[in-house]
Design a protein that fits this description.
- The chain is globular.
- The strands form 2 sheets. An 8-stranded mixed β-sheet has the order 3-2-1-4-5-6-14-15, with helices on both faces. Strands 9-8-7-10-11-13-12 form a 7-stranded mixed β-sheet, with helices on both faces.
- The chain starts with a strand and ends with a helix.
- Helix content is 35%, strand content 16%.
- It has 371 residues and is of the alpha/beta class.
- It has 13 helices and 15 strands.
- The structure holds 1,4-dihydronicotinamide adenine dinucleotide, pyruvic acid and magnesium ion (MG).
- 1,4-dihydronicotinamide adenine dinucleotide (NAI) binds next to helix 6, helix 7 and strand 8.
- It comes from Thermoflexibacter ruber.
Length: 371
């Protein structure tokens, strides 16, 4: 198969979808790999390194999209890329359709095959292509939160761990999945008082077992959230209903309960955000303030630490990229239930229920497009 890797163009998106090691694995199996010049540069990979393993370098994104049967990307296509995508082309990347009606319609119109990293799912219901980036974003959310709590950038002016004789900060984490677990470990390690909320009691039991003593687990409910936010310094939004819009757990009217300078990091922003007042921001301009509460809502947090994120992401995606390249998407999806669940929009049809529901669009059973 002809595989194309364009350079990412989202704001401060420094990751690349395939490393030279990944290109090597594909070439070794007889596939042709085209990489846009400079695509790996910000992750530390030169054009020369791709060439050494037999990949070919192309000058522009258009050339890559024109020639490739499968495009492997990191972030969802953005407007300049919509028209580059061809009918029947397989596009394997994060899409997060439930957070963008415009993207959903653009991909329906493209007639391409959109296989979304974030909904590829293992039989145990884990999300293998989201996990590595959730690990990164979870850890980063505490770093970012700590930074924006500083007074000169409008935070409360509190150190997460306090110092001897002074209380540590209170950190509230909504959602005890991958992002939430990694955020809790980091915040606890810095010495903060951490409250971790989830709606799953089995999950809370498990977390209670593995977390250090300065992490308390609490059932997530509107009432409990209101009690907590009155004393929170940093709030991290980390909930997920796979493929669907995130539930709004903190509404606009709840901001009045918070201290001025509280920081809210909405990691779930890529699924629309779990705070009513969240709107996507960029690494260039990551925060804004509403009612004295600092909001950080960057939708591609891992893009800022590409040396870690590119390798973590491609470790997880490569086995699936190989299956798709070896077998084509239809056969690969028939043989792998994991990949089948990644199909979101195929040849103009929405085949993922959460996406159809998010935008009130007709839903087509995925079996219909596999035939
Ligand atoms: N902004 C960014 O750069 C990035 C964003 N993400 C996003 O972070 C979000 C979380 O991802 P993961 O941790 O991997 O998901 P996960 O599926 O591992 O965890 C989500 C957790 O939320 C819980 N939950 C659902 N509804 C809840 C509620 N009402 N209250 C409390 N908990 C609730 C679930 O029980 C589950 O434990 C996703 O939207 C993901 O796309 C992930 C990586 C990067
Ligand atoms: C998960 C995601 O949206 C990201 O890594 O950018
Ligand atoms: Mg207030």
């Amino acid at each position: 198969m002809i595989v194309g890797v364009p350079k990412e163009i989202k704001n401060n998106e420094n990751r690349v979808a395939l490393t030279p090691a990944g290109a090597d694995e594909l070439v070794e199996r007889g596939h042709t790999v085209y990489v846009q010049t400079g695509a790996g540069e910000n992750s530390g990979f030169t054009d020369e390194e791709y060439k050494e393993v037999g990949a070919e370098i192309l000058a522009t994104a258009k050339e890559v999209f024109d020639i490739a049967e499968m495009i492997v990307k990191v972030k969802e296509p953005i407007e300049q890329e919509y028209d580059l995508i061809k009918p029947n082309q397989l596009v394997f990347t994060y899409f997060h359709f439930a957070s963008s009606e415009e993207l959903t319609h653009a991909m329906i119109k493209s007639n391409a095959v959109c296989l979304a990293y974030e909904t590829v799912e293992r039989p145990d219901r884990s999300l293998p292509l989201l996990i590595p980036m959730s690990e990164v974003a979870g850890r980063m959310s505490v770093q970012q939160g700590a930074k924006y709590l500083e007074k000169p950038i409008k935070g409360r002016g509190i150190l997460l761990g306090g110092v001897p004789g002074v209380k540590a900060a209170n950190v509230l984490i909504l959602g005890g999945g991958i992002v939430g677990t990694h955020a809790a470990k980091m915040a606890a390690g810095l010495g903060a008082n951490v409250t971790l909320m989830d709606i799953s009691l089995p999950r809370l039991r498990q977390l209670d077992d593995i977390m250090p003593a300065n992490v308390t687990t609490v059932m997530s409910s509107r009432y409990n959230i209101i009690q907590e936010i009155k004393q929170s310094d940093l709030i991290i939004g980390a909930v997920l209903i796979p493929g669907a819009k995130a539930p709004k757990l903190i509404t606009r009217d709840m901001l009045k309960y918070m201290h001025a300078g509280t920081v809210m990091v909405d990691v779930a922003i890529d699924q629309g955000g779990c705070f009513e007042t969240s709107r996507p921001t960029t690494h260039e301009n990551p925060t804004y303030i509403i009612d004295d509460v600092v909001h950080y809502c960057v939708a591609n947090m891992p893009g800022a630490v590409p040396y870690t994120s590119t390798v973590a992401l491609t470790n997880a995606t490569l086995p699936y990229v190989i299956q798709l390249a070896n077998n084509g998407w239809r056969k690969a999806c028939k043989e792998s239930k994991d990949l089948l669940l990644g199909l979101n929009v195929v040849n103009g049809k929405v085949v993922y229920k959460g996406v159809a529901e998010a935008w009130n669009l007709p839903y087509t059973e995925v079996s219909e497009v596999l035939a």
